[in-house]
Amino acid sequence: MAKPRDNRAWFLVLPVVLLVAFSALIPVMTVVNYSVQDTFGNNQFFWNGTGWFRELLDPSTDLGGRFFDALWRTLLFSTLCLLIEIPLGIAVALVLPRRGWGVAAALVVLALPLLIPWNVVGTIWQVFARRDIGMLGAAVNGLGIDFNYAQVPLHAWITVVLMDVWHWTSLVVLLCYAGLRAIPDAYYQAARVDGAGAWAVFRAIQLPKMQRVLTIAVLLRFMDSFMIYTEPFVVTGGGPGNATTFLSIDLVKIALGQFDLGKAAAMSIVYNLIILSVCWVFFATTTRGQGEAGR
Fold this sequence. Notes:
Shape: globular
Low-confidence stretches: none
Structural class: mainly alpha
Number of strands: 2
Helix content: over 70%
Strand content: under 5%
Radius of gyration: 24 Å
Number of helices: 13
């Protein structure tokens, strides 16, 4: 006979759920309200309907061209970060010690970049990459390369990508390390009996067993890198020109710099929908693949 379920525990978390839903619902309703209105100032609004959305999704308009330019830059930045941080995180996790005092020391050192506030990370790299007093900038210029992230777009991109890799690769390492530690020793013992090499063990045992944590790592890193604002804004301010003006930076410029609340609200809604859609597609694809592989 099946044991009856006691659902009274839901009443204990219901107040928290209602509080979170309420605190999230009000900002969303405000943004949606602004996205369908326009204003001439003095807190006077008039109905604009879907006008901002039509203009935003039309690349031939100024707003649409600006939006799609920032979108491609943001997608490129997220892609570069994922292509570097995921393989690098896996490689570092594989060489970390499994036993002894070195485990705690390595994990503490890896966690240090994650504890630094985002604006401090931007300030660190703003100084670190300077050509006159920064260690990175001075070292690169000492090799005969005229490195100047404030004037050369390619150098600005290299700086912000390296900054993100330094800041967030540790998260991927920690997740992958947790996945590796969860693999039973019996798998490794069977691999040694079969005479499997390191590459065969990684391909047949470690990588498949890390798929779930890698899914989490990719989703977290995509969302973080796609929504990044503070670090590149502190380092480059979106420059030189608009070279590192990502969607988040452009959104703030429109909302606070130009005070175009309707345009900014429409952009923020589309921005959020893009993030949710990409994450849903990726998660659904990977979980479906894992389910078919487990059959």
